[in-house]
Amino acid sequence: MRTTVGIIGAGPAGLLLARLLHNAGIDAVVLESRDRSYVERRQRAGILEQGTADVLRAAGAGERMDREGLRHDGIELRFDRRRHRVDFPALTGGRSVMVYAQTEVCKDLIALQLQDGGPLLFEAEALAVEDAGTDAPRVRFRHEGREDVLECAYVVGCDGFWGVARKAIPAGLAQVFERTYPFGWLGILADVPPSHDELVYARHDRGFALLSMRSPSVSRLYLQVPDGTDAGTWSDEEIWDELERRFETDDDWRLERGPITQKSVTPMRSYVHEPMRHGSLFLAGDAAHIVPPTGAKGLNLAVGDVVTFARALTHRQETGSPELLDAYSATCLRRVWQAERFSYDLTTLLHTAPGATAFEDRLQLARLERIASSRAAETDLAQAYTGFPFG
């Protein structure tokens, strides 16, 4: 099998890249190790930056998002039993975010790809990327019980941290930067309307909490828990009780309870792999970088990567110049490190570190007070949250 771009992974990054290339008249093949049902049910991110939503619209994948997604014009910060709303449009010149689950993004992009795009092979396990440093890379994969080879001009690894793409970059050429946090998030899905119409980020002496949502009738909530926590050790009542404590305010706001349909614990880590390119192999998304979920940057960073690649390859096709492709890693990493910085800042601002001193607690409150009282500090948060420019 032969194509111009071999894409490993049919998450939102791989699927969006296939759509962008199709719209530019560049052929591509997508290999996905899981079946379609798994990809369309895989719960991950739910916040789309302004730029991500705009790209989906421009790619022809925004109709259902605009119909069913929830536009949010701000977030609420809670600390010391007080509430402070950050108004995104007022601080960013009209930018906002969209609450629309990754599962729904994938469903929309899969439907488009199967309707008029190039080959999308489910249950096609990529085994290795060969000759990545040359002009003729190959992807060995297993599909329908037999091994095959996909010959490409370029390979884009959208196959996550555990995929084969990153492993094809020689260790001697790579530099890795990472940080593991001593806590995680206990996340739940609950069949109850959200108790607030925007996301609530709560800093509490007992630990961080986040009120989010998947739809007008389904709430998504998180609690900071010690690293290594087993979600099964928390009863539903204990979860709701702890959420109530951490969201408490001095007004009459109340947290609505409902049946919990899913529990899981997400570890917290930061990770960056440099470079994001080796020869004809390009890394995108979690294959190259991971952020703690506090700043809702993971999916949005992956979108930035594939937009950068699609623009660079289109430029190469139209002009013959490899300039933008050669700059791919550096271009992406500038945005990646800003997102890493923001996610780290927000994580350390809102979470209670094990063994934190009274001095450190007071510093957190002082930082939050600064955001609540300074338009400049508040603007910096709003600009980062709604998204850094692509490219």
Explain the overall architecture.
With 391 residues, the chain is an alpha+beta fold. 36% of the residues lie in helices and 29% in strands. It contains twelve helices and 20 strands. The chain has helices spanning 12-23, 36-41, 50-58, 63-68, 88-92, 102-116, 236-247, 298-319, 323-326, 328-350, 358-373, 375-386; strands spanning 5-8, 28-31, 47-48, 70-72, 74-79, 82-87, 97-99, 120-121, 124-130, 138-143, 146-151, 154-157, 175-190, 199-203, 209-215, 218-226, 260-274, 277-278, 281-283, 289-290. Strands 6-5-14-15-16-13-17-20 form an eight-stranded mixed β-sheet. Helix 8 (298-319) packs antiparallel against helix 10. It starts with a strand and ends in a 5-residue tail after the last helix.
Describe the secondary-structure layout.
Layout: E1 5-8, H1 12-23, E2 28-31, H2 36-41, E3 47-48, H3 50-58, H4 63-68, E4 70-72, E5 74-79, E6 82-87, H5 88-92, E7 97-99, H6 102-116, E8 120-121, E9 124-130, E10 138-143, E11 146-151, E12 154-157, E13 175-190, E14 199-203, E15 209-215, E16 218-226, H7 236-247, E17 260-274, E18 277-278, E19 281-283, E20 289-290, H8 298-319, H9 323-326, H10 328-350, H11 358-373, H12 375-386
Helix pairs in contact: 1-6, 1-8, 8-10, 11-12
